[in-house]
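I'd like us to work through together how a protein chain folds, taking it slowly. To get us started, please write out a protein record for me. Go ahead whenever you are ready, and we will take it from there:
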Amino acid sequence: MTAGRLAPSPTGAQHLGNARTYLLAYWAARKSNTRLILRIEDIDSPRIKPWATQQAIEDLSWLGIDWDEGPDIGGPNAPYIQTERRERYRAALQQLIEADRVFPCTCSRKDIQAAGSAPHFEHESPIYPGTCASWKNNQPLPAEGTYSWRFRASDLEMKFNDTVCGPQACNPAQHLGAFPITQKSGDPSYQLAVVVDDAAMGITEVVRGDDLIVSTFRQLDLYHALGYTPPRYAHVPLVCGPDRRRLAKRHGDTRLSLCREEGLPASKIVTWAARSCGLLDEHQSVRSASELIERFQWNRLSRSEVVIDPATL
């Protein structure tokens, strides 16, 4: 059975850029008669806002998006909140330890910066210099709370064919390096949690922003190491402000909750998103998100960034 997912992170309010990606995931899933799962990705604990989970659910519902499983309605893959799924992450970590695919690392970001490294992808941290990588799984561990677990990236070319961006290739060891899959607290990182959850929930298509293409190579490496089958990926263009920088607070308040509070019809957001995706002409509009399901086609989506002046909405 096929499945897509919506995976908001409650680190703050959902905004116009998030809305466009969620709508694309919704349209893609419903057009192909695919189950849609809502999962709350709340393992980034220092940045989590207590109010943001319920607000995200309300924002999605307001947009006209519905789902088949989630924290509000339950389902066979519960729980749907990552902080309630820690045992699954611990089991996956133990599997990687036993296979010698990870090592404990006591390095700080400052240590890695100071060590210098090979050239790395734009917006990526320096490649890990291998300081702690000689550890083997029969050796003693550092003191608890002083280390994170890093994954030994594979030294081979990895490829995938993105639904939107086309063929992608990368050598994880050479271009990305070993990466953390837990925090020093022992909690899982995003990379490990998302792979374990997508595999456990049977996710077959992931729709997300194209700033996460690099993360996909790390996740594919984890999929292979854990023996999971990876999903298809569709990395969609980011929404940018008039300065062509990623939509942010500097462009004004684009929170969906504010749109709701001020009485802006959800159809305005849906129509804007559909026009930006090529599903509607500039003079066309819709009253609900569900009206676009039959019109949806991935091949109509431009690979160019989406530029918007929030004030024009």
Summary: The chain has nine helices and eleven strands. The two ends are 38 Å apart (CA to CA).
